[in-house]
Amino acid sequence: MLICHSKNMESHSVEKIETQNQIPQIMEPSKGTSFFRTCFNGINALSGIGIISVPYALSQGGWLCLMLLFLVAIICCYTGLLLQKCMSVSPSINTYPDIGEFAFGNKGRILISIFLYLELYFVAIEFLILEGDNLQKLFPNAKIHFGCVKIVGREVFVLLVAIIILPTTWLKSLGLLAYVSVGGVLASIVLVFSIFWVGAIDGIGFEEKGVIWRWDGLISAISMYTFCFCGHAVFPTICNSMKDRSQFPKVLLVCFLLSTIIYGSMATMGYLMYGQNLMSQITLNLPAGKISSKIAIYTTLVNPITKYALVVSPIATAIEDKLPLRKSKFIVSYFIRTFLVISTVIVALTIPFFGYVMTFTGALLGVTVSILLPCVCYLKIKRPSYLEVMFIGMILVFGSSIAISGTYTSLKNIISHV
């Protein structure tokens, strides 16, 4: 599924990468983006499907766990700066895999590419699970008959959405989809206001007290928080797009600050509305029939459909570039992209647990890509001071413990519910 290829072709593929919450940047290649435009691209990179699950994450850890949301944001912002410092060493470093190769040779490039592609693959799976769950919320009695085969509930919508998005994965040029999906920030804002409308005007209220602290859900909460701030795959590309790269630290600060405000607001509102009754997606808690609920759900549904091809394309391109075939490559390309869609559908139908899959993705892939690898590469490439080494060491211990315990917890939950 994940095949590593030559340096030039892989760099081209990874530049397209978009994680669970990444939007491809749109810029004028001859100029470079302004500070404001880069901030917009960065917020797009951090705004994604994690926003509908951050209230559930808070309910897993309790009110004090909100401090860990800020901690994860600070750590991920810092590791984003580490990536920039690594890039400053050589003008030949343009992408995340380039950093890995500069630090550890071809093995470093391969390792980082594998984790990036795996992260994309699981984000695509999350898209399908999300679509199935929310469409079932809107149309609970949907069913399809194929002879003696009866398909009901979320399975109907997972298959239907897969059929809709399949042709988009065949497109070689994703420019139009990029322009459509650039509305990710606006969609996040609309979603936050829709949830506020449900609580303030549609009678739900903000009266739930919740709990102060929950040890048993702490690891899951941190893993899901990490999923929310996984934008590191495109940070090098966004940095390279700037007119003035020295302003990139300010861009990161603005992007993480605004994203944290959005995530924190959504988490607080959702927890005050539903408390410990929160489901893995807050849209599934919303009252049926309300206009505000429909706006929230439809807003949630649009982005995954437009982003799916952007997420799957780098994986498909990596495989295609490695294949020795030339004459029949066009047909093989269609087959590979169709196979990727089918495989994600199978996984989404087999493990339709949005929260558990998000916890797994955040713990294993998100922590590795956004926390561990930037630190390791920085320590290898640069010569930091003793105090910085100590600080990075603490981050590595924190990240490793979350990766191990979060992966174990999520796999345990998935296996027990299959």
TrEMBL record:
Its main location: membrane. It is a multi-pass membrane protein. Residues 32-410 form the Amino acid transporter transmembrane domain. It is found in: Membrane. The chain crosses the membrane at residues 35-55, 61-83, 110-130, 142-164, 176-198, 218-239, 251-275, 295-319, 331-354, 360-379, 386-408. One of its GO terms (cellular component) is vacuolar membrane. It holds the Pfam family Aa_trans. It comes from the Eukaryota. One of its GO terms (molecular function) is L-amino acid transmembrane transporter activity. InterPro entries: AA_transpt_TM. Keywords: Amino-acid transport, Membrane, Transmembrane, Transmembrane helix, Transport. This is Amino acid transporter transmembrane domain-containing protein. It comes from Solanum bulbocastanum.
